[in-house]
Amino acid sequence: MGVALETDELWRYVDRERASLADLVESLSPEEWHTPTRCGDWRVREVAAHLTIGARSTYRTVVRDMIRARGGFDRMVHDSAVRAARAPVEEIVGHLRSVVGSRRMAPLTTPRESLLDVVVHGQDIALALGRVREVPPPAARDAAERVWTMRFPPRPWPLPGKRLVATDIEWTRGAGEEVRGPIAGLLLLLTGRPEGAREWLGRTSVPEQ
To answer: What is the pTM for the complete model shown?
Structure first.
C-alpha cells in the first residue's frame, strides 16, 4: 500500500501546519507560553522554538551545536531548543512564520521529517494547553509511516504484538491484538506519547508500554 505523499503535496501540509501553529502560539497568554509539555522539561515555549530551528540550520550551526553537546544528538536537540526559547515570544512567532514556504531542512533530514516534526509537536503544544488541534489524516498517515519505517533514531516503542488500524484513512501496520483509532492517535502512540494518544483513541484502547 503506497501511502507516501508526493513531495509538493507534503510541503503544502507542512506550510499549513506551520502557519496554523504560528496563529495558535501568537494567541497565547504569557502564562500559556510557560505551560509544561510532555516533551521532557520543554514548555510550550521550547517546543515552539524547536520547530523554528531545522529550516534555519546550516551544517556549520549543526556542527557547532554538536560540539557544544559533546557529540550527543538528543542533547543537541534539547539544548538548541532551550537556547532558541530565550528569544522574545514575538521573535519565536516570527521565526515560525518565516519558515512557511521554506523548503530548507535540517542537515541529513528529508521533507518527511519536517512534516513529522510539525505534526507531532503541534499536538504536544495543543494537548498541553487543553486545545483540540485537528490533523489532516493524509499528513498524519505519512508521518506515521515514516516513524514505522524509521531506523535512526529508532522509534521509541516498537509495539510488539499489536496491529495498528486507522479508522479515518486506509493504513494498517503490525500484527497481533488490534489497536484502532484515528491515525493521529496512532501516530502519537508510535512516537512514544501514550497519554496524548488516549485523547484521540480513548483511555481503554491504548496498550501499556
So the answer is: 0.89
